[in-house]
Design a protein that fits this description.
The protein is an all-beta fold. It is built from two helices and 28 strands. It is about 0% helix and about 40% strand. The strands form six sheets. A nine-stranded antiparallel beta sheet has the order 5-28-7-8-15-10-13-20-16.
């Protein structure tokens, strides 16, 4: 993301001496993507950021998946995964339950009330949607404040932790890439500025305001990373607390984006899903379906037409409102519909006809489309309702 920010105490020239009031040097760290060839930021530490005193294995949350076979549309009830008695002891990182995944992206869900440990994802960027609740997200760049409806975008290898706030639990829907996540290229100029037709812009992205200072020795950080055998974890112990940055600048940093700031693109007839796109990653895209005026051609049918998107699996997370096309299927807030590539799907029986004449849809959903088949994680298997596939026909096998 090429939107430049400068926060805290930064020297006038990069890669030059930068000292505190007593003349002690700060330690400059470049955090960058694609081998010095893409977005980066320079951070200035009070202590050496690579001072590790211990490293031990960490068992990451269950990451095994099983194929969607026989091939079926599915309805996953995420709210069933976390009964109330589990919230107090669950955190938003180690408490994640894998819902769906492939080699490009993993989708997890957590309901938490406990503070997470310090955590760094060295596999890829994370986009975490806050379904409900609120949290302070402390990061090596500074503090973010997240609440219901916010996306929290965390760059790869940025150390951070989630601290729930408020009275209720924190419900988070985590989209983890095997690589980097960015705005769609068609929204950006060749220099990286958001263009006039984009449904959001730089003003809607909120990064940290001030550096975050913390003291401590022998501080543990959970690191998720890659090996030839797959994704594994390491407990790294640092000599000093990693939150010791006095200033930073650049174009790589965590930020929040409120889904309410997404301006929907509408038309006289039904707009296809790319009109709703908010982010893209390697092998997948993320889209927002937000409250909006719908199709205004006099003969329009506002709900989606039946479609076979043969190259994609379509994953819709229903966050609020009343999703017109899914009435009669049992889907509601907290539901995920899985529509795999190779199968036609569309509105539930009766929704096609009922939508005629509608002028506004009050719906809220986050969609992930992938270009490789998704498999079910243990969380997805545990909350599959088993009946969604039959809802269009009204009956199952004889």
């Amino acid at each position: 993301m090429a939107h430049y920010l400068r926060v805290g105490d930064v020297p006038p020239k990069r890669h030059t001496q930068h000292r505190d009031g007593e003349g002690r040097l700060y330690y400059e760290e470049l955090m960058g993507e694609e081998g010095f060839s893409a977005d980066s930021s320079l951070l200035y530490h009070r202590e050496i950021p690579s001072a590790i005193v211990d490293a031990r294995p960490w068992d990451v949350p269950a990451a095994a998946t099983t194929p969607n076979h026989p091939l079926k549309p599915r309805h996953l009830r995420l709210h069933d995964l976390f009964p109330e008695e589990r919230w107090a002891a669950t955190d938003a990182v180690t408490g994640r339950r894998l819902v769906l995944g492939n080699g490009d992206v993993r989708i997890s869900y957590a309901v938490s009330a406990a503070d997470s440990p310090l955590y760094r994802n060295a596999v890829g960027d994370e986009v975490v949607y806050v379904e409900s609740g609120s949290a302070t997200v402390e990061t090596i760049f500074g503090t973010l404040h997240a609440r219901q409806g916010h996306y929290v975008v965390i760059p790869m290898s940025a150390t951070h932790r989630w601290l729930p706030t408020g009275d209720g639990p924190l419900r988070t829907y985590a989209i983890e890439a095997n690589g980097h996540i960015a705005p769609p290229k068609r929204y950006l100029s060749r220099f990286g500025q958001f263009l006039e037709h984009a449904p959001y812009c730089e003003r809607d992205l909120h990064g940290p305001g001030e550096p975050l200072q913390a003291d401590g020795t022998d501080v543990e950080v959970l690191v998720k990373h890659r090996t030839s055998a797959g994704i594994v974890g390491t407990r790294m112990t640092y000599a000093r607390h990693p939150f010791d940055v006095v200033g930073w600048d650049g174009c790589l940093y965590p930020f929040t984006f409120d889904i309410a700031d997404f301006e929907p693109i509408t038309g006289r007839v039904h707009q296809p899903p790319p009109a709703h796109q908010v982010f893209e990653g390697p092998g997948f895209v993320v889209c927002n379906f937000v409250p909006r005026k719908v199709d205004y051609h006099p003969l329009s049918i506002p709900v989606p037409y039946y479609h076979s998107n043969v190259d994609s699996d379509e994953i819709m997370f229903y966050c609020g409102g009343d999703y017109e096309a899914r009435k009669g299927s049992g889907i509601g807030p907290g539901s995920v519909s899985v529509h795999p590539g190779g199968l036609a799907h569309g509105p539930q029986p009766g929704a096609y006809e009922r939508s005629i004449g509608a002028e506004f849809f009050d719906e809220l959903a986050v969609m992930v489309d992938t270009f490789r088949p998704l498999e079910l994680g243990e969380g997805g298997t545990a909350c599959d309702d088993g009946a969604y596939v039959w809802t269009w026909a009204g009956r199952g096998p004889a």
